[in-house]
Specification:
alpha/beta
């Protein structure tokens, strides 16, 4: 059984300790570090290469959104879940656009948090129901963040029905990197799954389906 390596970033020691204690009860999760600020989070990501980061958004030194943005740019294979008390637009949308693979409120049930970690590690995205509803309300009016050329390539191949494994072979990159690109695309476009990505690509004229 593969072990999911998790990093916890939160400025409250009791939260970090509580998360570490609970997560380490899971057979498939290992907490590699817990840190109190965004600067140390970036250093710990570079040092430990975690699979998943639980990131508070209100952090000293480097705020959570900026930390998410840097991790997504520098280590796309590391998935970040924003774990916060806030549902404010000025926290929610920047975090999703920065590349968060998940956005959960701190009132989430412990087992739901574990499920979220496993889900994003598997290449999917997961949002708290209230967050998903808020995103849907705003998606029509929200300006899209441009995709990188590589992300556009991934979108076009998704629209043509290719699996992550086939996309990896086509682009000569790892399947884990493909999963990270898919997560970033979902976050930037405000979509929830591959089917929506494919439909979006066709609607935008990025790809023609016979």
């Amino acid at each position: 059984m593969a072990v999911i390596r998790v990093l916890v970033a939160d400025d409250h020691a009791v939260v970090r300790q509580g998360l570490r204690t609970f997560l380490e009860l899971q057979d498939d999760i290992e907490v590699v570090a817990d840190v109190p600020d965004g600067g140390q989070a970036l250093e710990a990501v570079a040092e430990h290469a975690p699979d998943v980061v639980l990131m508070d958004l209100v952090l000293p030194v480097v705020d959570g959104v900026e930390a998410i943005r840097r991790i997504a740019a520098e280590r796309p294979a590391t998935r970040v879940i924003a774990l916060t008390s806030f549902l404010d637009d000025d926290k929610l949308f920047p975090a999703v656009r920065a590349g968060a693979a998940g956005y959960l409120l701190k009132d989430v049930e412990p087992q739901e948090l574990v499920r979220a970690i496993r889900t994003v590690h598997g290449g999917e995205s997961l949002l708290h129901p209230a967050v998903a509803a808020r995103l849907m309300e705003d998606v029509a009016a929200r300006e899209e963040e441009p995709l990188t050329p590589r992300e556009r390539e991934v979108v076009e191949l998704i629209a043509r029905g290719l699996s992550n494994k086939r996309i990896a072979a086509e682009l000569e990159i790892s399947e884990k990197t493909v999963k990270a690109h898919v997560s970033n695309v979902l976050g930037k476009l405000g979509l929830s799954d591959r089917t929506q990505v494919a439909m979006h690509a066709v609607r935008q004229g990025w790809v023609e389906i016979d």
